[in-house]
Write a structure and sequence with these properties.
With 227 residues, this protein is an alpha/beta fold. The chain has one domain (13-211): P-loop containing nucleotide triphosphate hydrolases (Rossmann fold, 3-Layer(aba) Sandwich), CATH 3.40.50.300. The chain has helices spanning 24-37, 53-62, 70-82, 85-93, 104-113, 118-122, 141-146, 158-176, 194-205; strands at residues 13-18, 42-46, 97-101, 133-138, 185-189. α2 (53-62) runs antiparallel to α3 (70-82) and α5 packs across α8. The radius of gyration is 17 Å and the shape is globular. It binds 2'-deoxyguanosine-5'-monophosphate. Residues 20, 47-48, 62, 74, 77, 102, 106-107, 110-111, 153, 155 line the site of 2'-deoxyguanosine-5'-monophosphate.
Length: 227
């Protein structure tokens, strides 16, 4: 039993992060398929979740159909994660491995890249359920651009992506050291072939897929998260 009274063997919380066009969403889908083929209960989530009321406001902002103050949209992205925090925790405690396409690291990276203070950006996501592993799919923005070009959405511009990458690298350095013996942040070379990226991801994920014994922690805290 962990500090929340839950069984300590729970599903793993695995986050996939990266620049736009890093291959993140395709790799998350491939990983889900691989887990399901191995009969491991797994579910894929995605942030922003554009289906909720908050998510619809975010969607309209990203499509440049509406404008919002930088801080206001930052808090909405965070609120979009908070509105699903309880279901993340419940799914993990029921033994489901959760894959999450983007999470709080994107929250900091994209807003800090726009010039908002890094610590201010981190604050609203403190205490969210903490991932057991974050896979950062690293690709140079010029390589990402060559993959059929960036789309039409607000942040899909090369200079912005360059700044976002710097922020992700900082997050990686800060997160790598805090794993209690386990690597919490793994950088994957996403410039390789799809198959090579998939294999690197599997090597990092495999030790976690049969359950995790340690309690679910909260992001940027040391205590366990309630269910
Ligand atoms: P996606 O649906 O993964 O293509 O993400 C949509 C865009 O929103 C993408 O450019 C990354 C950005 N984004 C994702 N999460 C956040 C966040 O929490 N804050 C900010 N400012 N941008 C985010």
């Amino acid at each position: 039993m962990d500090q929340t009274g839950q069984s300590s063997n729970r599903g793993a919380f695995i986050v996939v992060e990266g620049l736009d066009r890093s291959g993140k969403s395709s790799q998350a889908a491939r990983l889900l398929e691989r887990l399901q083929t191995a009969n491991i209960p797994a579910k894929l989530m995605k942030f922003p979740d554009r289906t909720t009321a908050i998510g619809k406001t975010i969607d309209s902002y990203l499509r440049s159909e509406s404008d919002l103050d930088d801080r206001a949209i930052h808090l909405l992205f965070s609120a979009n994660r908070w509105e699903l925090a309880t279901s993340i925790s419940s799914a993990l405690h029921s033994g489901t491995t959760l894959l999450c396409d983007r999470y709080a690291f994107s929250g900091i990276a994209f807003s800090a890249a726009k010039g908002l203070p890094y610590d201010w950006c981190r604050a609203p996501d403190i205490s969210l359920p903490a991932p057991d592993l974050t896979l950062f799919l690293d690709v140079a923005p010029e390589v990402a651009r060559e993959r059929g070009g960036y789309g039409e959405e607000r942040y899909e511009k090369e200079e912005m992506q360059r700044q976002v990458r710097v922020m992700f690298q900082r997050l990686g350095e800060e997160t790598s050291g805090s794993g209690g013996g386990r690597q919490r942040w793994v950088t994957i070379d996403a410039g390789q072939s799809i198959q090579a990226v998939e294999e690197d991801i599997w090597r990092a994920v495999e030790p976690l897929v049969h359950g995790v014994d340690n309690p679910l922690e909260r992001l940027w805290e040391t205590t366990a998260a309630p269910s």
